[in-house]
Specification:
Blueprint lengths: L12 H25 L6 H24 L4 H26 L7 H6 L2 E2 L2 E2 L1 E4 L1 E4 H20 L6 H20 L4 H17 L4 H21 L1 H13 L8 H10 L26 H33 L4 H25 L17 H19 L8
Antiparallel strand pairs: 1-2, 3-4
Helix pairs in contact: 1-2, 1-11, 1-13, 2-13, 3-5, 3-6, 5-6, 5-7, 5-12, 6-7, 7-8, 7-12, 8-9, 10-11, 11-12, 12-13
Amino acid sequence: MTPQRVRHPGEFRWETRLLAVATLFLTALGVASCYAAGTYLPEWHHEATQQALAALAGSVIFLIAARTDYHVWRKLALPLFVLTVAGLVLIAMVALAWPGRKAPGAVNALFPVVNGAHRWIQLGVRVQVAEIARFTLAAWLAAHAAQLGAKVRRFNEGFLPLVAAMAVVALLVAKEPSVTMAGTLAVIGLTVIFTAGARVPHVLLVAGLAAASVFLVLKLDRVRSDRAQHFRSTTVECTRNDQACASLIGYGSGGVVGVGFGRGTQKLGHLPEAYSDFLLSVIGEEWGLVGITFVALCFTVFCWMGLRIARTARDPFGTYLASGLTVGIGVTAIMHAAVVTWLIPTTGLTLPFMSIGRVSLVLCLLSAGVIVSIGKQRGRPAGE
């Protein structure tokens, strides 16, 4: 019997390089677009400079992560996951004690409320713990699933513990409240669990329960129910003062090549959070169909290369981790685009690599670096 040929790492090099190039383009265009989206705001130059510095710091972290053996995240997965859950529990406690309003004194200084939501911890910079959970949840599930091996196919011994951990994180995030981020975390978790070999009926059962939970939240929670009703009503009659309508106007008014960098008008008071929640609308207005196509192409290349790397990783942990990190970025980008194009109600999800947010940008670049690290070690026997 002829032994199976082990492919040399150099044969895979183009995939990691292409993923790195897509990451570079998205980050560079994101910094430029964030600067353009907030030029009308007082002292925006400072914010744009901070975003550019975060891009530089994140690029260094990307290079370090790409050159570091990704198995280090298997060792760090549990402590990082525990710290993430602890942070989410603290935020949930504040949200329960002061729902939708500022807490007194030092508590509010540490756990600020923004737009009626408790999602952040102020640690020098404002950190959204749910953003960190996208990385730590994928890492811990990947590490634990690799340890379980074939037991993942058994409901009680393997599948249920993984789903329970995912559900705890998703429920804590939903309490902030951030239902869409909770849904994103659930997608990441189910992707890792499914990739690890869980039975399809088990995955479909959990997916069905998650969908039913979202439906009940939309029905029973008055704020979200009103938002859904408003979304349905604005699909019939569009008013320029509505943020979804303003987003669609900006997205579609750019034509083929856009009105020009920095010359968009929807960001001038019509679009709230134009530099974060609706950044793709600004890109559509200023860069036109050409810019939107370029952004979509970069995300497509990133996800395609990420999943190719996952499929050919040297060990199960690499496969599960690359799958979770890639899908997390891809799903977030799709949901952001769906909001901008008026396909779903406003969710508050930013565009990965591109929207304003220093911590989010650094974490996205860290994730990309880890995927590159997984890709670079393919073709080498496990344990080498």
